[in-house]
Amino acid sequence: MRKQTNLAEVKLTALALLSTEINETPYSPMIVKHPFADTGVSAIPDGKGGVEMIDLTEDDAQLRWRQSMARQIDKADNAYAIYMMVTKPYALTFLKFAMPHLSREDMSQILASAWTRSEAPHQDVNVTVNQLLRMFKQADPTCLMEQDEYIQFKTLDDTVTVYLYLFIALN
């Protein structure tokens, strides 16, 4: 783990994700899949102090949107700000690829947020359960929890038994 985050490399990681294809859905342009967009209807600066609404399913609009997003990424002054530009379904994917360039503290803060922000973090096709476990093992526990949670965590026994209730409905 790095002592300090290499922000330039994190930005390059974000730009690589930005360059991926925008995947249309049956509901496009309203709903698309992309690390930086959930909807194909987006607003970009119009150059006159206002915004222009664009359709990301159109090639020209896509190019202008990517350029606008690239400028936002370039202006970011920390890794967390870049992470917050990423859509929820891609939060852990961003972390996976940015992790080699992050400090332990930045990685831990992003992991804590991505875990709670993602709707089904254990089902991310880009991040395996084993990769998630490695992330949590490398993370700083004080960054993963609020202070009162960490104090309670430290009072737990060495072994904690967790019971899982599984309900299966049969037709």
Describe the structure in your own words.
The protein is mainly α and 171 residues long. It has one domain. It has eight helices and four strands, in the order αββββααααααα. The chain is globular.
Name some characteristics of this structure:
mainly alpha, two-stranded antiparallel ribbon, 171 residues
Write a compact overview of the structure shown.
The protein has one domain (7-154).
Structural class: mainly alpha
The residue ranges in which pLDDT falls below 50 over 5 or more consecutive positions are none
Whole-number tally of structural domains: 1
Main beta sheet strand tally, sense and closure: 2 strands, antiparallel
Average pLDDT number = 93
This entry's quaternary arrangement is: single chain
Task: Please render the helix and strand layout as text.
Layout: H1 7-18, E1 23-24, E2 32-33, E3 41-45, E4 51-55, H2 59-75, H3 79-83, H4 91-98, H5 104-117, H6 129-138, H7 141-144, H8 147-154
Antiparallel strand pairs: 1-2, 3-4
Helix pairs in contact: 1-2
